[in-house]
Amino acid sequence: MKVILQQDVKGQGKKGQLIEASDGYARNFLIPRKLAVPATAENLNTMKQQEKAKKAQEAAEKAEALSEKLKTSVVKLTAKAGTGGRLFGAVTSKEISDGLKAQYGLDVAKSKIVQEEPIKAFGTYELKCKLGYEVTGTIYVVVAEEK
């Protein structure tokens, strides 16, 4: 008989796991003690929804932690310049993403970095970063002249 464990059961499995147990063990021990429920379509669907919610919660917590790390991280980039402090080209979100990974080990996709306008001059910039559902972070970027 297939059952879904509601709690960790020694020798059988962990909470939320689908296991195959003998009929007597499931009917006489696991189910009456609320250690497991029968693996019906409804219970399987409930189990999948709970797993999905748990993964979403973990992703939100991870995004919050990344947001906190970004607040203390200042990305320092160098670029070639022309006359008047203007850059040749612009600093892109890919360069910022690569700088975060190289300098702090933080992995932020370039598509999540929001730039209203490209960075074309030296200075300090504050950019927004969409990390997850309603979770945003702030990236501080310092662009200096390459020597």
Automatic annotation (TrEMBL):
Pfam families according to UniProt: Ribosomal_L9_C, Ribosomal_L9_N
Ranges where the Ribosomal protein L9 domain occurs: 13-40
Transmembrane portions of the chain: none
UniProt cross-references to InterPro entries, sorted A to Z: Ribosomal_bL9 (IPR000244), Ribosomal_bL9/RNase_H1_N (IPR009027), Ribosomal_bL9_bac/chp (IPR020594), Ribosomal_bL9_C (IPR020069), Ribosomal_bL9_C_sf (IPR036791), Ribosomal_bL9_N (IPR020070), Ribosomal_bL9_N_sf (IPR036935)
Coiled coil (residue ranges): 41-80
Record's keyword annotation contains rRNA-binding: yes
GO BP annotation list: translation
Gene Ontology CC terms: ribonucleoprotein complex; ribosome
Keyword Metal-binding: no
Molecular-function annotations in GO: rRNA binding; structural constituent of ribosome
Keyword tags: Coiled coil, Ribonucleoprotein, Ribosomal protein, RNA-binding, rRNA-binding
Family: Belongs to the bacterial ribosomal protein bL9 family.
The protein's role, per its UniProt record: Binds to the 23S rRNA.
The protein's name in its UniProt record: Large ribosomal subunit protein bL9
Annotated gene: rplI
